[in-house]
Structures
1.
Amino acid sequence: MNDTTRLEVRPDVAEFLEKVRARLSDLTDEEREELLGGLEADLMELVADGGSVAELGDPRAYADELRTAAGLEARTQARLGLPGVRRPRRSSRELVVELLDGSRSRWERWVAAGPTRAQVWGVVVALRPAWWVLRGWVAAQWIDMVTGPWEYLTLIPRFGDDVTGKLLLVGAVVGSVLLGLRRSWPASHSPASVLARVVLLGLNVFAVLALLVVSTQFPSARVVHDAAHPYAMGRFGPTGYTSGLVNDGTVVRNVFAYDAEGNPLEGVQLYDQSGEPLAIEPEIAYRMRYGGRLPTIYSWSRGEEKAWNVYPLPIAYDGGAWHRGDRVWTRDEPPFLPQPPLVAVPPAVLPLPEADEPGAEEPQESRPEGRAEPGPSQQEEPGNDR
Amino acid sequence: MDTTQLLKGVLDVAVLAVVDAEDGYGYDVVRRLRAGGLEGVGDASVYGTLRRLYASGALTSYVVPSDEGPHRKYYGITPAGRTLLGEQRDAWASFSAAVSALLGLREPARTDALELTQPLTQGVTR
């Protein structure tokens, strides 16, 4: 009719509604109005129907029932908060928990839905310990990869000495298995803290990705790769990769020569007993690290050819022009010869029988002429250094 | 037996069925549910259920101005709600048949009992 009837909203109804509204104060305005929309009319009709607000009971219980039935989260900490401060409806932590639990239960339902799936999944679950060991190994390899100089992987990581790598490997595997057995980390199931679960999940994902990365560095992966790409370099010995220069299983990236008096030499050309150039393999050697910086390795030139057997090889910190074709001397910041690792080395002499004084006074005389002249002098142009 | 717990499980399908029969506003739906035999149904539970079904897209709503007082908020069923109702109706049929059989109220219907879990879980996820 008009405003007069509107004012006839009974005081008890209005009061009840106000209490319900207050109880829903932690919801957003939108949620609250959505919940309360039409409620006034419903309550009015209830009263008109001969009922009374009193029979609805406690307005707070009424409000709780309303929100629960509406699928909204029950009021919990709101009363502890400051008045007027509205708690977000769902914290991100609850969302994460719901996501994790939801994914898990969806997966379990999916697996349970098919007998074959259930069997396969049973096998996978039984293989979990293998994964624990594998991810421990991956962790050790990963640490090896990011800390040391680049090298092809071995089953047991090498950390310069024999002991460190083995200790690290054992430690990583034991830690990973303990993690799997939930001895050293809270469970991945619901009661565990959200952070613990997320960290564990992240570590596992990282281990899978690291496994993909690490596996490409394994020599056997290179065998496959090289078989498919004959132009790629590659010969393998029983201990791993042997292309280029290898010293005791470790890739040689540069060579520093000293004369018999112990002074560093520049521009030394090296050949082996057959006249083959002793050249490093640039595709491998450029991956070395100098204190985190990646230098590009350049070569000396022999006419148009690049001479990878002339040492020391110049380097440049030019942001890593990793294209072999770029490695020429034409850059603005030219490559330079790196400092030799040792400023000088002790003099050396040949143990000749007539040498009365084995001192360093006459090293030139003690060197036979045949040695001073490199054997392959007729091979001025070793066409291919590979 | 405490029927409020039972009521919780079937309130959705009951509300859907009532609204499917005829659009209604909150108190109207409560009244029809009670008239249908669910005397113990709580006002707030029904209102909340209506809001939730609306939020999930099973119901639509519209406001009807009233001369005598506050506006009424009517709810009607959507095609999605009708689909949901159909699924829950099937689930209820096999569930009630199975429980009745278990309680000896009816001849055992083995197939119903065996198929019990499937419609119930699928009705939620589908």
2.
Amino acid sequence: MKAQPRGTDGSLLASLPWTIGALVVSLLPHIPFLAVWITAAFVACAIWRYTIEQRRRMLPSRWVRGGLALLCFLGVLATYSAISGVGPGSALLAIMAALKLLETRRRRDQFVLLFISIFLVMSSLLREQYLWSLPYLIISTLVILTAWLRMSAGKTETAKQSFTTGSRLLLYAAPLAIVMWVFFPRLASPFWSVPIDTSRATSGLSDTMSPGDISSLSMSDAVAFRVKFEGDIPESRDRYWRGLVMTSFTGRTWEGPKPSNGLRAEEQIAFRGEPVRYQVTLEPTQQRWIFAMDMPREWSLSRTDMGLQQQLYRTTPIEQRVAYEVVSYPNYVIQAQLPSRLRLSNTKIPLTSNQRTINLAREMRAAAGSDTAYVDAVLAKFHEEEYFYTLQPPALGKDPVDRFLFDTKQGFCEHYASAFAFMMRSAGIPSRIVLGYQGGEVNPVGGHLIVRQSDAHAWTEIWLERYGWYRVDPTAAVAPERIELGVQGATLDGIGASWGFSSHSQFLQDLKMTWDALDAKWNEWVLGYGPDNQKSFMEWLGMDDPNWRKMLLTLVISVVFLILLISGLMMLRYRVPRKDPAYILYRKFVAKTGLQQVVGETPQDFAARAAKDGRISPVAVGAVTLAYLDARYGAEKASSEEKLRTAVAALS
Amino acid sequence: MSSILWQFPSRVFGNIRNSATLRVGRWARKRQGRDAATTTLRPGRVYILPTGVGLIFGLMVFAMLLGSMNYNNNLSFVLTFLLIGIGFVAMHQCQRNLVGLELTFAGTDPVFAGQSIQFRIAITNQSKSARYGIRIYHDKTESDVHDLQPGESKIFVLPVLTNRRGWVDLERFGIRTLFPFELFRSWAWLHMNLKGLVYPNPADHPPEPPPSRVAQGHRQHDARGEEDFAGLRKYNVGDSPRHVAWKAYARSGQLLSKQFAGADTSSQWFDFDDVPATDIEDRLSILTRWIVNADRTREDYGLRIAGRELPPAHGDTQRRQCLEAVALFDEESP
């Protein structure tokens, strides 16, 4: 059977723009993550559908729609190679919305579209949560509610009325939402683990390091993590945020071992001196590395272990912002004794490449006499010779260490760390590369430390008798200001100045810091409102020993109370003022006739009966009836009402 | 086979639903009692249930709650709780959209059996806030949807199909709204016991009326039509209130009926006993056709039925009185 296509009748003209608007608003945050063709397909379908409605054209046939649906589904499969997760999920939702628009014939079909836009808003929140996400959420909800009201609106309801009604209902719902949000018990662990967004690019550090390949380092201002210290903030030169450790070198690329905690790595560390306590709020990285200041001893994050190279890692990737507390000891000794197996693996270098460096290292080691003297000699070489710190070094090609050390002599932390570690290994000193962050910016407004992606850093650890694994940062020898002042300080002079980092005006800087402090508080108290925050907030509210039962009970009681309040407000709003005075006067007249008004009897019929009955003179009956009809249905209500009043008053 | 399978559940559940509706309806009738011709809806008699869309919305919000809990995502919690809040608010708004409306029976016009009779209900929004998406309904028929601005009064027309002559009782009708969001349906039942008159269905091929013309006379067809005002005469019991000259009445105090042009000399008697048919309903049907035809040609005609005698005349009043007498043959007057 073939469905007979019918032209549209333009009945959706009032609601369709709003429905499309709701879809657009809910799709906006997805656009940067969607393949371009999906956004284009949606826009095309929306314009197409609206034109159809406007010109009373016919909807595309079932075959066209089916073909498009198949094409789009295959397109999503080809683009994302998966259909679960937020990325392909939102792509599918966008495609569904576009195709559903093309078969939206009846008013009620738009329900599906509005439900899709609600899911789109929800999935954008799962993907990213910023300070502006809440205003966005409220605005998009308002647009969806207005579209919803437009959909079922009658002929006389204007868009402005729908919008006002939507806003009013949202305003009523807001206190309910707040109460439920505060008191709804938060779970400590999820029911199931589904990757939120596998298609998303990871930010932060890469797992390998090839200094010769990168010819410029991105200077992303994005926040990597924020740190709140319990006491004073340590000096910048002590703030080495350990991430991952790389132990093998191919001559070109440093690689880290897969983290494993076969041995209790913590037990290899001797902690000394006073601890530093702080809380880290880590932005999602999609990676497993957990950052802590050298050297962490305790951390509050679940499923997190210390690897063999004293790096912290989690068993699942960091897909959402996490906060954890750490206790670190700036003074420590790692592995005072190094097993020969490890000594061997940490001095391994490929002997076929970077020959010049190997030879130089052996000569310098022989000249120095001791390992420590050799380390000093290499650092002095970096410091005294013409080595430059730059974020835009030339590419290095074959034998990158040789090229860097003897020819280009320009590089950033990775180049220096790599060259230094290579020289150490060439001379038989165990060494390894640590990737992480260094320094960070103190926010005076919030009193916390901001560590940005641009603070990413690479340094080395060498193993020396009695000292164990000892941190050496060769970049400090080249550009001490990088360590003291951060990347921006290091690049302000020399080559980096042309890179375009001018110092901000004080006002802008203050504004930036205030925004960052606000963002940090927002992250801590709203986005990070989890079981712990909730518990302390409940205690602050005066709840003894908060548990989920008490919270749910409070939730129910407050919701009931609020609903009663809202119900009362509505009663007030929709209350019926005292009866129409004309009606009251007419009832008085009816009572005086001594007759009963029969069901369905019009005032005219009743007048005829009353006149015949004769208890009241027909003249009076006519006068009252006429005045009443005019007062209720006539044009000049006020004057007729006055007439009615006199007429009824005259009835003895 | 497949169609039987398909229909089976809907039939069974349809029956269950029908009997439940019946019971609930009886309970409501007992609870509310008979309504006056003008009734204001109190909160206690406005009922509310979620719609299908409302149930789907509920499921969706529940899924969103599970998702928010799983990802411990505080902003999607905000969205979920806002939607739950919207649900609660919509429920109250939906009920309030009906409470306080004043319904008044605004009459009905007689129809012939088989046509649908239109009950007119005037609904007044006496509050200071607009009411949206209101309709009245009975069984499967319903009125158009109207909005009522503050203070506005509108006539809602409820068509009810008729199949036999006599009084048609509208024992109960409902008023309902889906506003806002169509998540909930709130409704109220009204038992005003409205009545409407149904004339018999005019016979399609009636026999000629028996020749009982008392006087024959020639008259000119008046092109101006029968509704032309011709003068006033004294009011008689049974005259249509529509023809009462209210303005004149207010001036003089004399109840006068408007007379319309077209009075002529020819007249004819229609006698129930003389109708050439055996079945009573057939006879009434034929009588109805005769009256309608005679009225159309504006001849004078009289009617003898069930011991009543309506003297020859013509015009709206005569037509109405005659048809009423035929319609109510053997029926008690209300």
